[in-house]
Design brief:
The complex is a heterodimer. Chain A is of the alpha+beta class. Chain A folds into two domains: 162 residues, Uridine Diphospho-n-acetylenolpyruvylglucosamine Reductase, domain 3 (2-Layer Sandwich); 94 residues, 2-Layer Sandwich (Enolase-like, domain 1), CATH 3.30.390. Chain A is 35% helix and 25% strand. Chain A contains twelve helices and 14 strands. Chain A has a five-stranded antiparallel sheet with strand order 4-5-10-6-7. By secondary structure, chain B is of the alpha+beta class. Helices cover 28% and strands 22% of the residues of chain B. Chain B contains 19 helices and 28 strands. Chain B has a seven-stranded mixed sheet with strand order 3-5-1-12-9-10-11, with helices on both faces. Chain B has a five-stranded mixed sheet with strand order 7-15-14-13-8, sandwiched between helices. Chain B has a four-stranded mixed sheet with strand order 18-26-27-28, sandwiched between helices. Chain B is globular, with a radius of gyration of 27 Å. The N and C termini of chain B lie far apart (76 Å). Classes of the chains: A alpha+beta, B alpha+beta. At the A-B interface, helix 12 of A face helix 3 and helix 19 of B.
Chain lengths: 264, 791
């Protein structure tokens, strides 16, 4: 990797100041995406702002009808949280099936969501539950947060601090993994609850997206059969050596069915 | 004598002596070695598949912090090209095309990853920083990455002096006899297939350290090699012009090779040469991406085969046309892989009377291709065992009966094939029946029905295979174009108090030699395994050696040790006869004890060795002191392991994902020294075979970029991709080596891919599928099902 300055602020305000002062600075938490990119010299930040020392960005708590998870919370903590398992078991399931043991003990919720890798798991849960993203400046609805491949509503000096997940009546997640990377080839997160019926698709396209036809069908009839005949348009989906857009479009339906079955 | 000591000889599953070192992180791999004053090399590689270098300016790089030198091919004018160790002749008798393989690109790059320049600096990051400051101007040329493209009219010339990108056009067998047999055949079955290109991906990336002693003038190369003496010979004699006496090559602990660490690579020559130039040690270690684009790849054949059968299903003749991708340059043993390690195996376990094979080797703008676990034999086995299944289906024969009908009879050995090999022993009927029973072949239809009720498509597949390994008789391979002998060397050093050091030319990089070889000594000389140390991988310690590949270490290297032990025993008997005042003819030896026949007069081996090194009472007139013997063993023939593999798979129709559910291997590897190690070798080989069948694909795009250049895109098998692998052996002894052993390193990777693919095709039997190309990835299977469903 190239040389960079390293900062470890202990408050969100200090972190924001550091990011605002240096347009080529990068925030890092678990580093599971950024550090490999640095090692491959694919990224050349002037400084890294390590968020891991900011206590106010940690922890899992219930607030009314939502579970609020600090951005620095590691996947393993979400996967094993009694609070999460009791209120939104599928969220613990999503976290438990991210990467491998090493990844889950290093990677964080905020890092995954802010990075918005199209093949990541968490964005599907955030969009599929209609969560609210808390930042150093504001609160952003999931529907306004994910803008495109590796692109979110976050501004350069804005830090994702926590995510508030409304507790659904039911929710399920199913994914097909890329056989090599084990990231998501196509996944579906479905839920029914205070945010309505939602179907979020990850892996298949350049950015997580809602599947409107499936949401309408499930609103009328919450069953796997309701989505079985709905074909995702392959246009604009990802295509690579692991699968064509057509294959991924097909997987969207299969995973949606499985997610509904898992949701019960 | 301690009668309670556990048996540690031949047949005992002794725990691996080396594992404590490896599992506790105390292995000493090349990258663990750091020499005083060591510098670091970084290699600038071509980003293009094919380009002329029109300008190469290293001035800015040389001025960077910590940089000691920047070299290009212009600096290495006195350095030879990387040699090829095997020369194949064309059908017309002319030698193959053998274009120069420069250590650093000379005016032209021929694949992504081709070395262009090297930076040597105080630290590796400094070297890498400086490499980015090298200004290279490329005139990018059209490239050819597939053999079809490389052979098309007007294709780009990978080497300006090689017409049609053709390395050689070779053949074997009797074309006339095959044509005649086809003319009278009842059935003719045509089968076309591609054997997918693979990246070996040893866990330890390649690394090399050059060191030069300015006082003695001795060069030392530490390298991740399977055969340090061969590297010394190739690099010393052909590349750097250093006599063997002043070149030491050390291959310390090596973390897997699978063939990819047999070859002499440019980086080894670069660090050795640079260390001499700079008078400082120079280290280079590949990162994983560099490994993908610089380690020799494996397989990559395109083949059309035709089988002629009579009305009853007896094979009459086999005709094969294969194109083999050599990549951009000839790697050390590349030319022999698709010829003498492939076409000579086309008889398989069958008594096909007439076989004719043509092989065209083709240059492309890709990483060189060479031997990878099995090397030619997996390609032959896959072709034959898929072809037999296709024939059974097309002609309406039972796939088991068709195999049995054509098996070489158990009493027909030695058996001369029509493609040069003479098999010494085997029993294909027994391995087949044992595997069928273990896998519950006849209960399969019930399991298929049960799977169908769960929405899964279940299939079962079989492969009855044979391979030739334990390479190889030097005179034979010499006549076939090898530029080296393929004997092995073993030294047995019995120390004064009876412990033993073995020096072997074989090299262990995962095989467990330190245990298996110690067991050989324990069995024959009666010395406990923990008193036997195996030394390998250092040309300064071991007299000579040809290294480890082709499942040869035990069959050839073990036989050399056995021969050296015979010499030890012969000398020991003479010393014992002297000490016990008996005639040599009356001295018997059994596992550590010399005895005067018919008496209770004995001497332990340790007493004999003490007498040999403290020769106060010693037959000085007829014997030299000391107890150390060396033997060179040149095998009389290849060895011929074989057996039967059965795979069972289930397919998820919705996603096309193939799940391995069961795997049975019954192999005849000859005499088994350590059953646990054999089981591990077979399981590892099967894992790689399943990888080839279901997961692994090395993919280039049309522009010659390597798309599968990291673990993110190249699918290595993981534990959850595999199935429980049941491993058993059914032994027939090798008849021509003293141990009766055949070799077990490659059988798993050779026998398994067709078993898996036959199972995949069987699972899809309701969809009218005749063939699925490897790897059987989910989208490929989904497309097949989707097409047939019309969904």
């Amino acid at each position: 990797m190239y040389d960079f300055a390293y900062h470890k602020p202990s408050s969100v305000a200090d972190a924001v100041k550091l990011l605002a002062a240096d347009p080529d600075a990068k925030a890092v938490s678990g580093g599971h995406t950024l550090i490999p990119a640095l090692k491959h010299r694919l990224n050349k930040p002037t400084s890294l702002v390590d968020l891991s020392g900011i206590a106010e960005m940690k922890g899992i708590r219930r607030e009314g009808n939502a579970i609020v998870i600090g951005a620095l919370t590691k996947h393993e903590a979400v996967a094993t949280s009694a609070e999460v398992k009791a209120a939104i078991p599928v969220l613990a399931f999503v976290a438990k099936h991210i990467g491998d043991t090493q990844v889950r003990n290093r990677g964080t919720l905020g890092g995954s969501v802010a990075n918005n890798d199209p093949a990541a798991d968490y964005p599907a849960a955030v969009l599929g539950l209609g969560a609210t993203v808390h930042t150093s400046k504001r609160k952003v609805a999931a529907d306004e947060f994910f803008l495109g491949m590796f692109t979110t509503a976050l501004e350069a000096d804005e830090i994702l601090t926590a995510i508030s997940f409304p507790i659904p009546e039911k929710a399920g997640y199913a994914k097909m993994r890329n056989p090599a990377s084990r990231y998501v080839m196509a996944g579906a997160f479905v839920s029914k609850g205070p945010m309505g019926v939602r179907v979020a698709i990850n892996g298949a396209g350049p950015c997580v997206f809602r599947q409107a036809a499936m949401e309408a069908a499930l609103s009328a009839n919450w069953s796997a059969d309701a989505v079985a005949a709905i074909m995702q348009d392959a246009d604009g989906l990802n295509s690579d050596i692991h699968g064509s857009a057509e294959y991924r479009a097909h997987l969207v339906t299969v995973m949606a069915k499985r997610a509904v079955l898992a949701a019960g | 004598m301690n009668v309670m000591a556990p048996f540690e000889g031949i047949g005992a599953s002794v725990k691996r002596k080396e594992d404590l070192r490896f599992l506790s992180g105390r292995g000493q791999y090349t990258d663990d070695i750091n020499r005083p004053g060591q510098l670091h090399a970084y290699i600038l590689r071509s980003p293009h598949a094919h380009a002329r270098i029109t300008a190469l300016d290293v001035a800015a790089a040389k001025a960077m912090p910590g940089v000691r030198a920047v070299y290009t091919s212009a600096d290495m004018a006195a350095v030879g090209g990387i040699p090829c160790g095997w020369q194949i002749h064309n059908k017309d008798g002319t030698p193959m095309a053998e274009p120069k393989h420069p250590v650093l690109a000379e005016g032209k790059v021929r694949h992504v990853g081709d070395p262009v320049a090297v930076v040597v600096a105080d630290t590796r990051p400094q070297a890498r920083d400086a490499a980015e400051a090298i200004a290279v101007e490329y005139d990018v040329l059209p490239s050819a990455t597939t053999m079809a493209h490389a052979q098309a009219p007007g294709a780009p010339a990978v080497h300006d002096d090689v017409p049609s990108n053709l390395c050689y056009d070779w053949h074997i067998g009797e074309k006339g006899a095959v044509d005649a047999a086809f003319a009278q055949a009842t059935h003719r079955v045509v089968f076309e297939t591609t054997n997918n290109r693979l990246v070996p991906n040893a866990m330890e990336p390649r690394a090399a350290i050059g060191d030069y002693d300015t006082t003695s003038g001795e060069h030392t190369l530490y390298t991740t090699s399977q055969n340090p003496h061969v590297i010394r010979l190739l690099m010393g004699a052909f590349v750097l012009n250093i006599p063997e006496s002043r070149l030491r090559v050390v291959a310390p602990d090596v973390g897997g090779g699978f063939g990819s660490k047999i070859y002499h690579y440019a980086e080894e020559a670069i660090v050795t040469w640079a260390a001499h130039k700079l008078g400082r040690p120079v280290k280079w270690t590949a990162d994983r991406t560099e490994s993908f684009m610089s380690d020799a790849h494996g397989r990559d054949h395109v083949t059309r085969a035709e089988l002629a059968l009579d009305a009853e299903g007896t094979f009459l003749a086999l005709r094969v046309h294969t194109q083999a991708n050599m990549g951009a340059y000839l790697s050390t043993f590349a030319p022999c892989v698709p010829t003498y390690l492939y076409a000579t195996l086309l008889a398989g376990v069958y008594k096909t009377p007439a076989i004719y094979a043509e092989v065209k080797a083709v240059f492309t703008n890709t990483v060189p291709v060479d031997a990878y676990r099995g090397a030619g034999r997996p390609e032959a086995t896959y072709l034959l065992e898929r072809l037999v299944d296709v024939a059974a289906r097309q002609c309406g024969f039972d796939k088991l009966e068709l195999r049995r009908r054509n098996f070489i009879a158990t009493d027909a050995f030695p058996y001369q094939t029509p493609v040069a090999l003479e098999y010494d022993s085997g029993d294909y009927f027994s391995t087949l029946s044992q595997a069928l029973e273990t896998a519950d072949w006849h209960g399969f239809e019930a399991r298929r029905a049960e799977a169908k009720a769960r929405g899964r498509l279940r299939g079962i597949g079989i492969s009855t295979y044979l391979e030739a390994c334990g390479i190889a008789p030097s005179a034979v391979v010499g006549s076939l174009g090898a530029r080296a002998g393929l004997y092995e060397v073993g030294t047995i050093r019995v120390h004064p108090t009876g412990s033993v050091t073995v020096l072997t030319g074989a090299h262990s990089h995962g095989q467990g030699h330190e245990t298996t070889f110690a067991q050989l000594v324990s069995d024959k000389l009666g010395v406990p395994v923990n008193m036997v140390d195996i030394v390998h991988g250092d040309t300064a310690k071991v007299p000579f050696g040809m290294g480890t590949y082709g499942s040869r270490s035990l069959a050839v290297g073990g036989s050399a040790m056995d021969k050296a032990m015979d010499k030890i025993i012969a000398k020991g008997r003479r010393i014992a006869a002297h000490l016990m005042e008996a005639s040599v003819e009356d001295i018997e030896f059994d596992r550590g004890t010399f005895r005067v026949a018919g008496t209770d007069k004995t001497k332990a081996l340790a007493e004999i060795s003490l007498a040999a090194y403290v020769p106060h009472n010693y037959p000085h007139d007829e014997l030299e002191p000391g107890l150390e013997e060396t033997a060179f063993y040149d095998p009389k023939n290849f060895t011929y392991p074989g057996g039967c593999h059965i795979a069972e798979v289930e397919i998820e129709p919705e996603t096309g994902k193939v799940h391995m559910v069961n795997f049975t291997a019954v192999d005849d590897v000859g005499r088994v020294i350590n059953p646990m190690i054999v089981e591990g070798q077979v399981q590892g080989g099967v894992a790689q075979g399943i990888g080839q069948a279901l997961l692994e694909a090395c993919v280039y795009d049309e522009g010659g970029q390597l798309l599968s250049a990291s673990m993110m895109d190249y699918t290595m098998p993981r534990a959850d991709d595999l199935a429980p692998v049941s491993v058993a052996t059914h032994v027939t002894l090798c008849t021509h080596n003293p141990l009766g052993v055949k070799g077990c390193g490659e059988v798993g990777a050779i026998g398994s891919p067709p078993a898996v693919m036959n199972a995949v095709v069987d699972a899809l039997r309701d969809f009218g599928v005749n063939h699925v190309e490897m790897p059987a990835t989910p989208p490929k299977i989904w497309s097949i099902i989707h097409g047939k469903n019309g969904a």
